[in-house]
């Protein structure tokens, strides 16, 4: 992250989770990666949004892959 900060070319980052690593000068984009993270998402997202000024979120990486989110489109939309 420091290398990206030095170049001033990065504007945002994600961590494959709803938790940031605390870089206040970059926009953090939380990710709800898979269904097992829902409780973590609900627990941390309000705090993350308030101090990181979150304006976007990512959801369910590669839902068709069993090693990734592994969700049907209906389940993803429901969550």
From TrEMBL:
TM stretches of this protein: none
PANTHER family: ALKALI-SENSITIVE LINKAGE PROTEIN 1
Gene Ontology cellular component annotations, sorted alphabetically: fungal-type cell wall
InterPro entries tied to this protein: ASL1 (IPR053183), Asl1_glyco_hydro_catalytic (IPR024655)
Protein name, as recorded: Asl1-like glycosyl hydrolase catalytic domain-containing protein
Lineage, broadest ranks: Eukaryota, Fungi, Dikarya, Basidiomycota, Agaricomycotina
One GO term (biological process): fungal-type cell wall polysaccharide metabolic process
Top-level lineage group: Eukaryota
Annotated ranges, domain Asl1-like glycosyl hydrolase catalytic: 6-78
